[in-house]
Amino acid sequence: MKDITKKSDKDLQKTLREKREDLRKIRFNVSKKRDPKAARNIKKDVARILTELNSRTA
Fold this sequence. Notes:
Layout: H1 9-27, H2 36-57
């Protein structure tokens, strides 16, 4: 998740969709064991991407 400032807007949007899908899978995967740190890290990555996208449009 390093160097998000160097990625294009299109790449960031794609990464954002992927991260949100991963988070959705983790959240609704009740049959298997979950790693709470994985969900936390994905949420932080989503926040970083959104922050970068918002700073570019402002």
